[in-house]
Amino acid sequence: MSAFPRSPRSADGFTLLELMIVITLIVLITGIFASSIGGGFGVHIRNSGRALASELEYVSQRAVTTGRAQRFVIDLDEQVFRVESEPLPEPAPDGTLDRATIIAQLAAKDGST
């Protein structure tokens, strides 16, 4: 009778090579899964940032073009943003719209003299 009655292939357990292969496969599958989930979130943030930057550029150009104050409103409850513009000043009683009338209306609106 020998000291090792069983052959190495019939021994219970796994070899080091088998364990290394299984661990490598688990790491590869986990890496692929994590990158597919995490990559989509980064793209969404980047696209949202670009959309926000283009909207701010639009508001700036609109203010320059129209000569009126523009407001960029971010509504966190609704999760939207929008552009609001100041209404045009009303003309004077004689139908003219001069600089003095505009300044007086803006001053009255702000509460200043």
Helix-and-strand structural type: mainly alpha
State the total count of DSSP E strands: 2
Q: With helices defined by DSSP (H or I, 4 residues minimum), what is the helix count?
A: 2
Strand content range: 5-15%
Question: N-to-C SSE series?
Answer: HEEH
N-to-C terminal Cα separation, in Å? 113 Å
| Principal-axes shape call | rod-shaped
Largest sheet: 2 strands, antiparallel
Estimated helix fraction: 55-70%
What is the C-alpha radius of gyration, as a whole number of Å? 35 Å
Overall average pLDDT:
78
- Runs with pLDDT <50, length 5+? none
Spatial strand sequence of the major β-sheet: 1-2
Task: Describe, in plain words, how this protein is organized in 3D.
The protein is rod-shaped, with a radius of gyration of 35 Å. The chain contains 2 helices and 2 strands. 56% of the residues lie in helices and 11% in strands. The chain has helices spanning 16-66, 99-110, and strands spanning 70-75, 80-85. A two-stranded antiparallel sheet has the order 1-2. The longest helix has 51 residues, at 16-66. It is mainly alpha-helical and 113 residues long. It has a domain at 15-85.
